[in-house]
Structure formats: structure tokens, C-alpha cells
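Q: How would the C-alpha cells look for this protein?
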Amino acid sequence: MRIRYYDESIASEWEVYLGGLPNDGHGREVTVNWQANEVNNNNTFYTDSNGLEMQQRILNYRPSFNFSSFEQTSGNYYPVNSAIAAVDETA
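A: Here is the predicted structure in C-alpha cell form.
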């Protein structure tokens, strides 16, 4: 993993490198779970899985219907292969 901090910005950049996955012709899904205790993002984050634009996501919320789930993890699963961002609203 590589983490970059920039002097001119309050943002940080994280690169995660995965290795040791078998290359046997079968598809694989890898999940990365992370928690930032000191980030106040109001349960809002942004994802981009196709390189076109960042989509706003809110935990346990869907804009087109009333969200209800007993599975918190799978109910908030978003495939990300390009970028994910969380913004501290108090910074």
C-alpha cells in the first residue's frame, strides 16, 4: 500500500496493490474494508467504477425508494475499480 500526502492539499491518496491471487481463469472479487474514525463525512462518500464521473453515495439511503435492509454490509456494497472518496465536512 502506498499513501501520499500533499503539502498544498488536505487530501491524501491511497494506492492498494493486491498480489497472490490465483490466475486460473476464474473470476475473482476482492473487497477492501476500511474505517476512518476521525473523518466526519455525514455518512456520504463518492464512488467511480467506470471512469466517467463520481457518484454520491449515502449509507443506508436510496434516492428512489425507502431503503430497508437487515444486511448492512451487502446493502451498502458498491463495486469500485477506479476511485472512492470521502470528504470531511468539518475540515
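Residues 24 and 82 are 24 Å apart (CA to CA).

The chain has a mean pLDDT of 81.

Upvote if useful.
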